[in-house]
Amino acid sequence: xxxxxxxxxxxxxxxxxxxxxxxxxxxxxxxxxxxxxxxxxxxxxxxxxxxxxxxxxxxxxxxxxxxxxxxxxxxxxxxxxxxxxxxxxxxxxxxxxxxxxxxxxxxxxxxxxxxxxxxxxxxxxxxxxxxxxxxxxxxxxxxxxxxxxxxxxxxxxxxxxxxxxxxxxxxxxxxxxxxxxxxxxxxxxxxxxxxxxxxxxxxxxxxxxxxxxxxxxxxxxxxxx
Length: 225
Fold this sequence. Notes:
Blueprint lengths: L1 H4 L2 E6 L2 E6 L4 H14 L1 H4 L3 E7 L5 H13 L3 E7 L2 H9 L11 H5 L2 H6 L1 E4 L8 E4 L2 E4 L8 E4 L3 E7 L2 E4 L9 E6 L3 E4 L2 E2 L12 E5 L5 E5 L4
Parallel strand pairs: 2-3, 3-4, 5-7, 6-8, 7-9, 8-10, 9-11, 10-12
Antiparallel strand pairs: 1-2, 11-14, 12-13, 14-15
């Protein structure tokens, strides 16, 4: 299974998920991608997926067949990134994007503000073994189970229980927050500050973790306002 999974690397990007395919036959790449999706159908349900196929030369039938398989699993293929002119033209004929969106010049001048304004919305529970990395804020409508990880450059908000590891402000933003309805994580990190394991609470209440004025990571009740 490790050999199959090594053919496909999946990470969160601004517009959804990006699957990078390793050098192999197209049939093997497709089988590895579908295998990963079938292993975690709840996570991929409703996802927007972009593919980085490198120099792979693909015809219309190749992409249509894969798009149909993804559609059957509730996954939308919206972009194909390729170094092959043939594949790029094929993708455009099918109405697929061939570039990921980039910040506008005025957004680049704002630096981190562009990343802060973007957010990755995950509408399913993150199960053990799942790792999410995103250059902005991450919002999870579900739980983060033990063994799951979230690494975000911005804030992380979990509308559920946290038992895994969360790292907010991963690029050094000490103003980043971690919010959850039940904050009993294996480990919390904000910028370079690390918390110890938080024990599960009998009567959990919504909490927010932040770096206080003394420079220490602490959690407190998550109040409105």
